[in-house]
Amino acid sequence: MRYIGKEMRRVDGIAKVTGRAKYAAEFELSNLAYGYLTLSEIAKGTITSIDTSEAERAPGVLQIFTHLNVPKLFPALPGGPDNKEFRPLMSPKIVFNGQPIAVAVANTFEQARYASQLIKVTYSQEKPVTDLRTAIDSAKETNAQKSPPPRGRLAIAYAPAPFKVEQEYNIPVEHHNPIEPHGATAFWKDGKLTIFDKSQNVYQVRDYLAQTFKIVPEDVNVITLFVGGAFGSSLTVNYYPPLVALAAREVKRPVRLVYTRRQMFTGHGYRPDTWQKVAIAADEDGKLTAISHRAVINTSTFENYFEDYFKVARTVYKCPNVETLYQNVVTDLPTPVAMRAPAAVSNMFALECALDELSYQLKIDPLELRLINYAETDPETGKPFSSKALRECYSLAAEKFGWRNRNPEPRSMRDGDLLVGWGVATGIWGAFQRPASAKVVYKSDGTAHVTSSTTDIGPGTYTVMTIIAAEHLGLDPAKIKFELGNSLYPKAPAQGGSWTTASVGSAIYGAVQNIRKQLLDLAKKDASSPLATADVDDVEMIDGVLRLKSDASETVDLSELLRKFGIEEVEDTYQSNPSPEREKYAIGAHSAQFVEVKVDPQLGTVHVTRVIEASACGKIMNPKTSHSQEIGGAIWGIGMALMEGTEIDHRYGRILNPTLADYHVPVHADAHQIETIFVEEDDKIVNPLGVKGMGELGLVGIPAAIANAVFHATGIRVRDLPITPDKLLKRGLA
Ligand code: MOS
Question: Is position 145 within any domain?
Fold first, then answer.
């Protein structure tokens, strides 16, 4: 391989750091108008009056949209009987605090914002329910996601077991806080809509808007060239794109609308409020005999949100008796949405902390306990893994970390006055692949143009797709132009689930195979060609020639070949699909995550001073951006473990900390030594490129590893995230 597996800088790096990269709210259009949202101040009830007369008279105002004057759009949209999608400005009903109830459109942003403050609203209020924990008893399974039947006989195995842990674990609502706020710029021309949106899925936005405005999907062009972080918050269509498009249609001017930071706390979903109860049992040797896992998360009154909560308890460790139960509680909050490593990170927090607790009872090293229960085949299905280098990850990361020097006694390790703790956890994520298409155009001048509608929310998709195309077309990456984020390009799935490289990369790979075949067919038209009898698999493209793999001197110059036939370029649009072969295997990505914390016993502050993480996620396309992904996951884990939590005043169903001053995320000073290692797997089953998901993987075990390290440092087990100083001090840290 010439480019795959070699470090490459981001092809869009210079555009990003020089400001040339244009984000959704940065496209300059002449005669642009600005929208500003007014949000509901109650969580539940009805608008009894909304007076916009003063706002309408304010300087620069073009129009104020409310449920009273908005045309009835939004036809029945897809979703089961349980899913009644929230449609903004369609009725006076209030279903969450912070719900949009008006859009002011004016000549400038300031005028629109000022006008919105002049809108007078009265409500009839009902008492909201937003506290999951007071409503656990009302939790229900939904039709959308029933727990699989129990495995084995849990009750019989659990009761007599000599070692048990039964505990509850809490994770609060958490909000994605990407640096780029959500927003869009839209304009209409000749009945066709163009919208620059912050999205992870341009085709979904396109189809949604086409349905909304009753036009054909081809008349909607969604463009998302750059995304300043999304993490799931733009995985589904948020409520603002149809509002921006509607406003642009009605005022007959381009309109831009961007959330303020505060508005981002109710403008898209969030990681659900999560209560979990885990009961695990083991025999004297540390072998797990029973796992019971119940998870309850909140949803909204109008949609059932679910995440795959079954997988972790059923598949991470070998265990004959397993029961899982997953339930929803209805709350007067917006609907949650996927947030980086949805379900997996939450489940692993509970399971990996419980396992750590068990290790102290058993007096078995926590790493050793994981090895004792290592699953060689999928415990749920019995299928072999297509590849699973987790054992190598454990040993490599443990060695690098110096795990063998760990004193097992809590509160036994010190650095001066600071308490030192070491913790471990396992990470898992899927190796998903979704149908995806890409178009490759190979030109007679030895360059190529590659397009797919996927987005790049930060992992380095521009770069990785360039590498894949360069490798297989045999061209220098500088000769490849890869473009994404436009609904005019071939259809690709949402960028989510860490499946983009597997999906879109496989489509590019497939298109290149077809181009090679087309070129070989052309070459074969000349009976004297050195490739006259070659098969497509016998030849490769390299530096502008097609050559025999077995004899590098047998070549055909591609520019000459195309010129000879008067052809400017050859192209192929390819849709790749997951291979049915995958069904025969258990497929996933794994990692081992070791963490050191230092805790100040006087202040209760926790610093994550070291993270060593080894990941097995197939073939690494670009080590540079891949390490960035894993480092980002670890930093996210620091935030989740120690800082992040959306506070809700349950009397009013209102978020109390909707700013970055009050909602804390890690900053540079919180990121110390973070070392990420890859154990590459040669996996021919997952997809032709042998790649697995990695972005979410890097986060999955980290919050548990940190909580386990905090216990080792302090002897205090905090089961409610985030682990803030007050929780440690209250429990007698000093
Ligand atoms: Mo992600 S949470 O798969 O956008």
Answer: no
Split at pLDDT 50, 70, 90, the class of 73 is confident
Q: Please indicate whether residue 713, judged by its CB atom, sits closer than 6 Å to ligand 1.
A: no
pLDDT 10s digits, 561-598: 999 999 999 999 999 999 999 999 999 999 999 999 99
Range of the domain at 23: 18-127+176-265
| pTM of the model as a whole | 0.97
Positive or negative torsion for Cα 104, 108, 109, 111: negative
Q: If we measure between CA atoms, which residue out of 194, 65, 45 comes closest to residue 119? A: 65
Q: Count how many domains the chain has.
A: 3
Q: Active-site residue among 250, 596, 630, 696?
A: 696
C-alpha to C-alpha distance for 201 and 199, rounded to whole angstroms: 5
Q: CATH no. for residue 381?
A: 3.30.365.10
Measured from the CB, is residue 367 less than 6 Å from ligand 1? Answer: no
| Atom number of ligand 1 nearest to Cα 342 | 2
Q: Are residues 552 and 689 in the same domain?
A: no
Ligand 1 atom nearest to CA at 234: 4
Residue closest to 703 by CA, chosen among 411, 432, 398, 339:
339
Residue 675 falls in the annotated catalytic set = no
Q: Ligand 1, closest atom to CA 338? A: 2
Instruction: Grade residue 143 by pLDDT with cuts at 50, 70 and 90.
Output: confident
- 611 CA to centre of ligand 1 in angstroms: 23
Same domain, 501 and 615: no
